[in-house]
Amino acid sequence: MNSSTVAHLASRAVIAVSGPDWRSFLQGLLTQDVETLAPGALRFAALLTPQGKLLYDLFVAGTEDGALLDVAAEHRAAILTRLTMYRLRAKATLEASDLPVFAVFGGEVAGEGLYADPRLPGLGARAYGERPANADEDAYEAHRLALGVPGPADWGSEANYPIEADFDLLAGIDFKKGCFVGQETTSRMKRRGTIKTRMLPITFEGPAPAFGTEVLAGELRAGEVLSGGDGRAMALLRLDRIEDAALSVEGRPVRVDRPTWMA
């Protein structure tokens, strides 16, 4: 049996949500359905601006008495403030939690307290609470990048629409759940097929270009480089300019490596 990799995700933090109205409260805010979330299940979602721009990503982990929100640690205070603003009279409690976040991936991913990552089977599972780790967060980020899955370093805040960040392909949006903040724009983009740009992995020789470096298709701008490492990075690309095009970054040839999960 192959042992799995366990990485402490220091960039993530937890918000505990409970109270009799916690489901209906989150249901009206997030892009993913939580009404059917069972204890032990995990949903990937986003909190959007009213205009439909991506504010924050999060995972919603079902517990016996509510849910855990797995969020970017640097944004936890801001997320708590925003959720509190929306809470109004809802009987829901929001509290910062000290639970650490772990990713378990590769090899045999099984065991108590694991929440299967809903985006892709290859991403393994998340875990909340102390456990022995045998890798750091860089190992998980390299694994995510190898699968061509964008992450928080790629989408920032209020810079992109969730569909541009592939949330619709990675189980991050439920288009049948009913209203949520930013739903109108999100649904219209999907319905009308007006998806002009997406985040895709690119490959190249040498170190990753700086974040924001222009990707060219001939002499035309085709997008920009996002996060990455040696030989591979994510990029936000115009779909109409990358097909059968000679792409380059700073004079270096690059190639789009479209992952199989996007087919």
UniProtKB/TrEMBL annotation:
- Output the InterPro entries linked to this UniProt entry: CAF17_C, TrmE/GcvT-like, YgfZ/GCV_T_CS, YgfZ/GcvT
Record-annotated CAF17 C-terminal domain positions:
196-262
| Key words of the record | Transit peptide
Does the entry feature the keyword Transit peptide, yes or no? Answer: yes
What span is annotated as the signal peptide, if there is one? none
Q: Which Gene3D superfamilies match?
A: Probable tRNA modification gtpase trme, domain 1
- Residues that span the membrane, as ranges: none
Its name, as the record gives it, is Folate-binding protein YgfZ
